[in-house]
Predict the structure.
Amino acid sequence: MKLFKDRSSALLFTGWLGAVALTAWLCVTPFAAAAQEALFTAQRAEEVLKQYVLKHSPWQSANVELRVVGFSPVAVPAGTLAYRVLKPSVGITPGTTNFLLALDAAGKEQQRLWIKAEIRIFEEVVVSSTPLAARNLVYAKDIRLERRDVSSLHARPYKRIDAVAGQQVSRALEINEILTEKSVDRPTLMRRGAPVTLVYETGTLRVESPGLTVEPGKIGETIQVKNPSSGKLIRGVVVDERTVRIN
């Protein structure tokens, strides 16, 4: 049976079939390619990097918050991937860090990505419940424990109330301020010119005599004192608010 009246009609039909076939191929090909790829998302990057950070730091998982910054999903080979953090290999600190991540498939490196992440550390620390003036003593009622971001601290924060109570404020503190080793110090027990007991010990011999402080001091500090009877200036270690042990 003759389908076409002339050769031109046959050619037109053949061209139409070719166009349909090409359109079908163009439609199918992207889907086939997509089936062979997956997306490496910011969420997955955060999971991978946090595991690495926890392995190479002393922090607990519950205390670490890691957030990827300015990252767009990246097409990667579908299937099982292994991840290797190439940089930094040491010295992970809170703040912004750039990580170089290698993606491996079937034992071969497929891709490398630079990923910027912000690391924040949270801990339960001692916080002031009221303003504290410099040189004042800290009492338990003045402070509390609270979970806070300690990422930007430049000194070690206190984590126990009893480690701070009884200490002396080094500088004025505002309410809700985290107390660190630089915020407080041992209290000054000895004031200049205060009467004290000078203790001399040698073996089983112990001698006590009255004295006067020439300079202030804290427990454990060596200060200058004066023996009133001899007028001699000597040095000794502060034992408590009334006693100085002469070396």
